[in-house]
Design goal:
Elements (H helix, E strand, L loop, with lengths): L9 H30 L18 H7 L6 H6 L11 H8 L6 H16 L15
Length: 132
């Protein structure tokens, strides 16, 4: 009777198959993420105040929502100095420890008010083609 034997390079074949399986697995995940974002409700040019989370900083929110730099600090009643890199949760714990979630809720309200007072800026017009 003939004995079954593995090829001499069985380790290389096994590693190749493992590599191909990983490529297929992560390729499918990337494709799924692409289609999810493409068909989803993702609009970076029009941020939604309800998407604000506690880990975000006032500096980040000022840039994302095109607010004046000290606007949030003024409306929240806190100093800007020393709070630029602190998250909304950290600011809440420091200045309003007896009111959990106050800073997050108030930040959303402030940004909604700002957006209602100042309508969004129109996009920049496309540049006219230069004559030949």
């Amino acid at each position: 009777m003939r004995k079954l034997s593995l090829p001499k390079n069985w380790v290389q074949v096994l590693l190749l198959l493992l590599g191909l399986a990983l490529v297929v697995f992560f390729g499918l995940r990337a494709g799924r993420a692409f289609f999810h974002l493409r068909g989803g409700d993702f609009h970076p040019e029009k941020p939604n105040p309800q998407d604000i989370r506690g880990w975000m900083t006032p500096a980040y929110l000022s840039k994302a929502f095109r607010l004046p730099p000290d606007y949030l600090y003024e409306k929240l009643g806190i100093p800007a100095a020393g709070n630029e890199k602190r998250s909304l949760q950290e600011i809440n714990r420091t200045y309003y420890p007896d009111q959990p979630g106050y800073v997050l809720t108030r930040t959303r309200e402030v940004i909604i008010e700002y957006q209602q007072e100042r309508p969004p800026r129109p996009p920049n017009p496309p540049e006219a083609p230069s004559p030949p």
